[in-house]
Structures are given as structure tokens and as C-alpha cells.
Amino acid sequence: MRMVVLTKGVPDFREGKVSFDEDGHLERGKTPTVMNPNDKTALRAALQTKVKHGGDVSLMSMGPPGYAEILQEGMDDVYADDLYLLSDREMGAADTWATAMTVSTGLEQLDETPDLIFAGFKTADGETGHTGPQTKWCLDINEEMPDYPLITHVVALDVDEDAGTVRAKRLVEGDVSEIETIEADLPAFVVTDPEFEANYRRAEHRLRHKDFRDETQRRAAEFGEYLADDSEMEPTEFEEFTMWNHEGLNLDPDFIGLDGSPTIVAGVDPIPKAPSEREATMIDPEDDEGMAEVFEELNQYAAGD
Amino acid sequence: MTEHEHYEAVVVGAGPGGAAAAATLAQHGVETLVLERGVDAGSKNVSGGLIYAEESAPYTIDQLFPGFREEAAERPVEEYYIHNIAGEKVETFDLHDIHHHDTEWCDAVLRRKMDSWLAERVHEMTRETGGGLLTGVRANGLLREGGKIVGVTLDELDPITADVVIAADGVNSELARGAGLMDWEEPEDWFQGVKAVVDMPPEAITERFDIDDDEGVAHLFSGDLFEGVRGGGFLYTNEDSLSIGTVFHLDSLSAQRAEPHELLDSLLTHPLLDQWFQGEYHEREYSAKLVPDSKKVANPSPHRGRLLLVGDAAGQMQAQGPIIKGMNHAVTAGGLAAEAFAEAKSRGNEKAAGTLYQQKLEDEGVMDQLRPTRYRATRFVSESDVVNSVGSSLLDSAVGAAGIKLFDGLLEKSFNSPFVLGMIPDTKLSYVTVPTRIAEVLGDPVYDENDVEPPALDDRIGDLTYDVDDPHIEVLDNSFEASGTAVTACPVSAEGFGGGCYREETVKTNGTEEKKVSLDTQPCVECGTCAVVADTHWEHPSGGKGVEFKQG
Ligand SMILES: Cc1cc2nc3c(=O)[nH]c(=O)nc-3n(C[C@H](O)[C@H](O)[C@H](O)COP(=O)(O)OP(=O)(O)OC[C@H]3O[C@@H](n4cnc5c(N)ncnc54)[C@H](O)[C@@H]3O)c2cc1C
Ligand code: SF4
Questions:
Q1: Nearest residue on chain B to A207, judged by CA atoms?
Q2: B465-548 has which CATH code?
Q3: What angle do CA B294, B98, B381 make, to 5 degrees?
Q4: What is the ipTM score, two decimals?
Q5: What would the pLDDT profile of A193-237 be if each residue is shown by its tens digit?
Q6: Most CB atoms closer than 10 Å: which of A46, A157, A176, A183?
Q7: A206 touches chain B (CB under 8 A)
């Protein structure tokens, strides 16, 4: 089973990591970039298929060279076998369509045609949820690639290799209260729902899962050495990491990046600041009366416990 | 018949017993799957912490796991003392001889570190055989076909069949209970151990205990500091911490309605300990667990069909007077059970494994260590009330005191005799009265002042890590008569304390007041006490759920 999972780097929106300026604009420089959490779910779905049926899981992303670290995170956390980064200045400022165009060409470029392609549900920053399905359309119009039926909102997944089918449980209309089971022929394109749960009910599967973890974490640690700031080695020298630019993909720059993006961003609303939970009174330290009040307030806590 | 996943051997539990069994099975090329319910091996386990390698034992932990002492253990323990305490008077005996009797070496251990180290090796060894070790998986019963045990059922996995199931699931073994090989009825069959791991920098340990960097020491405590509850205290030195705890007979603890955490505090705050604390006390972890008393519950025939019990699950926990030997016997039993299966298999008669295992336990002298005939012979006489009261009054008399003085040296000697210790009766006389009298007559007062303040129970609970799941214990009879003992005996509950597991409630019905018991399993440390002292349906939480010990 040849599987590819698509991912993207996003700002780490977790409390304590993310940083906003006074107007509520994200401070990109101060916020670390991490692998999109929903894509980890997609990678988990691919991993489960690999554990149960064998095969290889590649992780692919389009983005700046720094995204090598995002891919390394996917290898370390969710045990991807090898990593592909589509990276080029010409690809910059792409909208979802131009991204899908690029990514689908990346998929075509692989030695072996993927049996299953996985994408996560929405990115934590763009929130469009377009890239997965659009990539599937790009594959459809690509003569070199087979057609991939699209299965979205997948919460559970099983493959029948002999029959060449995939059976999935999916949320109808993205609603947890209604779940349907569908079957499709392989190859297929799967978009996992955040509710997806991997399910290992056999000891042999959990043992294999552990083997993969040991293997890929060792590999990820090795890749980490290539990525270290003081490393003498180029990341691309690492065997399980491949980087393609637009020439490598044989893509016309007019169709990718900003030039290939039909989307027009009309405006950006800043994220409203959460109201402060504590009541605060501002007091000027020069103001004696005010300071006396502070003293009064605090004094009651100063005694004993 | 449904097609189940199958392994030649399934070992349930990755404590010392399970680890030894699995390693030995792997050495014999048996395909072995090990299932451990903790998130990590050791995360559920508590011991005082001295693991012995006995010269006469057929299996020792370092022989099965080279590097064990250097990598998984704390300090080697050479010195061993017991302090007989009466008020502030203390008489110390050197138990060097009994400690070194049949001892190749003895190390202090912390179970999280030890068991997780073992588990890594076990996984490597068993993986080679086509099996491996999984954590976070709990066996919840025996799989039977046509009435015969053929495997295990699990919370997290589909049922698994095996040619042999080794239950190394510790005290409160659900598998032993399921097979009818162990019941959890009599408090007198068990001890309850409670323990605190206390921070102490290595330099302070070497200085305050007057030992070298790579040396350790054991101190035991008995006498009148535990409100007359039968049992004693221990203190062992680790690399950079101390293990300090108490072990009491559960029947005595229950009957006296003593609070285990308070008894532990009596030890922690005794003036004798000031020489080591020197006013500083920082508790890393509070923990507790039941301990079987092999003299009463070591199962002489610990097998049924394909199921073989090892270690605490088989009651193989020897209290040799004050010396507690459970881990070493679990290792031996694990080795022997594995060996028995491998032999039976090579003879093409796997069914014989159980009988062969039982035979080996006897041939190797393990059974006689666990259930000495001497104890069985003296028990009924010496544990009778008449003998006890005569004994106590004799000791209290001037004649008794003279005798103690006269036999000073002899007393120390008899404490050092495995023969005498093997027949020590489980009475207040031997646990409380004798040590107290020894201290009264021979002891010197301690003038130090120990003003450390151990944490209150709610802080102890608050410092523990839990992954709370649905309740795993159900009170079947919530009347105070049936289950009220748990309010005090539960190490994380106390009378008048609302934050514990068991609480006492007064319910008014039709003008009459009735005392009832309620249970909240959230702070439960899974010690097993209420399985015995209360009327409950008692199970362990599912894999990875419940309390997680970091020290153990
Ligand atoms: C306070 C105290 C002090 C002690 N002091 C000493 C001492 O100084 N020296 C000494 O030798 N012994 C001592 N002991 C006794 C010793 O800890 C035990 O005898 C020993 O741990 C028994 O080993 P075991 O392998 O049989 O069981 P355990 O070590 O209890 O291991 C059982 C394992 O099985 C797992 N398990 C249980 N149920 C299931 C299930 N259903 N499914 C999957 N996994 C399961 C548990 O999580 C655990 O890892 C002490 C005990 C206590 C409580
Ligand atoms: S509730 Fe029962 S098992 Fe849990 S800590 Fe209390 S006595 Fe022990």
C-alpha cells in the first residue's frame, strides 16, 4: 500500500505559544510554526492502514525550506516513513488552488502512484478546507494520474486489499450525530475528520505500531542532525527527504504561486482580544492616596496564610 | 469458533515476576506476549524497595538481566538495623547476619525506574520471538472454551488465546481470583504497605547516614510508635531519595480503626529520624499497596489448566520477621514457571506445565521458605490469646525485664536467626510488646527534636498523577457494618476527611439515623485494601487509567 499524507505548517495556536500584537494581529515571527494538527490525524489514519496492511507512508508539503522541520515533526510524532517538500520562491503566496496544482504535480512525480492520499480537515490558519478536495480535482484533470474518489469527514477506516476497496465511516454533513459507512475502490482520496480515531484491537498491530515508532523516531532524530543550525550537512543529503523546486516538478511558474492564484483576499479581520478576566485598577505610584489604598487591600492578605 | 489471535505464551503483568517469566520464556525461544496495564511498566507498582538476590535461588534478577544493578537499582544495601522503640527510648539491634544470610547482594530499588528498565529489555527479548510487551492493556478475565482456560480477555484488545497464561498480575490478581485460586476475604491474610519517597541530595545521604557514595543502608522500626497496630516501619536509602514506609497486618489495622497515613506520620515525625532529616522534609510521592502474607496464602498448587500464577498473584510474598521478600520470590517463580512450560513443551505435553511448575517450587525449596512448616506447627499455640496474655504479663514483670537484660546478646542473635524468624507468630506480642519492652529495658533515650511536617492527606493526593476513568470499584453493601472499615483503612481516606475515596455519611430515614458509606474512586491509589475489608466489586481500572506512580 503506497500512501501519501499532505500537510502544511501553521502557527502554533496553543496557549503559551501563540503571540498577538496589540491590534490582535498574529505575530508570525514570535509564534513557532508546527505541523497542522488536523494533518496529524490524517497521518494517524495512514499509519493505521500501514500497521494493518503494510506499505509506506510519505508526508508531503509545499512551503519554504524551513518546512523541513514540520516534516521532521511528522516523522517523529506520527511515524512517517519519508518526506517530500515542494519548495521554490515561485510557489510563494499561493492560494489553495495554486497549492493544489503544485501538490498534485508532486504526487504525480512520485515513483509509485499512491493507493491512498490523505489530507487533514482544514488548516489551523487558513481554515478553508479547500486544498484537499482541490488537489483531488487537479489529479482528476491530470492525464497521468488515476481518478481518486473523494471521501471526506472520515472517522474510521479499513482497507480490503484483496477486493481493492476502502471502507470508511464518515460523518454525514460533518455532524457527529449521523455516521454513514461507505465503500469505494482504491485508489482513493481521504480527508479525515478531527474525530477520527485509530483503532488497534490486536496485539500484533500494537506491537508493529511500536516497531514503527522506534524505527521512525530513530530516523527523525537522525534527520534532526541534518537540520541543526550548526550542521555541515544539507537536509537534502538525508536519504528520506526529497525537495523539489518548480523545475524539478516541471511546472510553469505562471500556474503556481501568486501568479497562479485566482483568490483575492478582500480583507482580514483581527482576532478580537479576549476580555481580561481580572478587574484591574490603575494606580500611579506617585499617587500617595492611591498607594495607601493598595496597601490597605494587600494588608489583609499579608497576615498568616 | 472464532479465530482468536494466538501466542504460545501470554504473560500478564510486567513486575519482577512477569519480567522474569517473559525473559526466561524468550530464552527458551517461546513466542511470548507480555501485557501490562500501566501506561509504563512500574507506574502501578509499589515496594519498600529491597530486592534480594539469594545465593540459593535458581533465578536472580541480575542473572536474567545483566546490568540490572548498575542501571535499574539504587544503592546496594550492606548495613541493616532494627530500632526497638518505646516512647523516646530506642534500642538498636544490628541485623547484619540475617540480612546477609543466603544473600548474594541486596539493592534498594524504586519501581517505576526498575520496572520500566526491565520492560524495555523484556520487549526486545520477546520481540525476537514474535511477541513483545505492550503497556496500557488490562486483562479483565480468563477466556474459556468448554469450561477450560484457553487465554485472556482484555479491555483494550480482542481476546487472545495462548498455550500458557502466566498471571504475574500482582496482589489483587484478577486472574487468580477468576480461576478460583485466590479470594480476597480475610484481612489476616494480608499486610498493607504505605510509603513516602522523600527527597535527599546524595551528599546529604552519605553524610547523614555515614556511608560511601555507592553504599546504602536499611533501618527498621518497631515498638510502640504505631498505636499498638501490628507491624513496623522501614527506611531505605536510594541514590537521591529515601524510601520510608510502614507495613501492617491488615486485620490489626482494620480492627484498631487506625489511619495508615497517620501511622506513617508517627514514624516520619519520631525524634529518631531527626538525625537524617535535620529539619528538612520534602515528599516526592505517597503510595500504598497490599502485600500478601505467604505464610497464609502462598498457594501450594498455583496453577489451573493453562494458567500458572507467579509472585504476589500466587501469594509468594515472604515476611521473614521484619525482612520483606516478595520481589526475589516473584523472580524465582517467574523463572521456574517459564522453565516448566518450556520443558513441558519440549516433551510435547504442554498440559503438564502446571504440575511441573509446582514440583519445581517444591524441589527448589521455595515453598518451604514461603510457608515454613515450623510456622504452621507453632501458629495455633502461639497465636492463641492465652499464650499472648501470659507472654505479655511475663514480659512486663520484673522477671521478664531481668530476662531481657540477661539475654540482651541472645535477643539480637535470635532476631538474626532465619529459623526463629520463620516461626515468629503474628501477634501483638512479637510485633509490639517485645520490641517495646526491649526498648524500655535496654534502650537509650533520643534527645533530638523532629519538627518536620509531612504533607496532609489532601496534599498527598493532590501531588499524585491520575488519569481518571469510570469508577472501577463498586460498593455492594454500603452499610457501615459491611464497608465502614474502609473509611479508616483506605490509605487515601480518613474519618472526617471529605477528599478521600471512602466517606462516612449519616442518612436519616423515617426519624432514624443510619451510618452509611459512600465511595468516590477518583483519588484511589489501587492498593486493594477495600477489596478485602469492604463489601465491594473490585477491579483494576482499564489500561493506562487511574493513578500513575512516578517513583513506586
Ligand atoms: C510498602 C511495600 C513494601 C515492600 N517491600 C518489599 C521489599 O523491601 N522487598 C521485596 O522483595 N518486596 C517488597 N514488597 C513486596 C513486593 O513489592 C511484591 O512482592 C512484588 O512486587 C511482587 O512482584 P510481582 O511481579 O508478583 O507483582 P507486581 O510487582 O505487583 O507486578 C504486577 C504487575 O501486573 C500488572 N497488572 C496487574 N493486574 C493487571 C491486569 N489485569 N492486566 C495487566 N496488567 C496487570 C501491574 O500493573 C503490575 O505491573 C513490598 C510491598 C509493599 C507494598
Ligand atoms: S479505594 Fe480501595 S483500592 Fe482505592 S486506595 Fe482506597 S482502599 Fe485502596
A1: B132
A2: 3.30.70.20
A3: 50
A4: 0.90
A5: 999 999 999 999 999 999 999 999 999 999 999 999 999 999 999
A6: A46
A7: yes
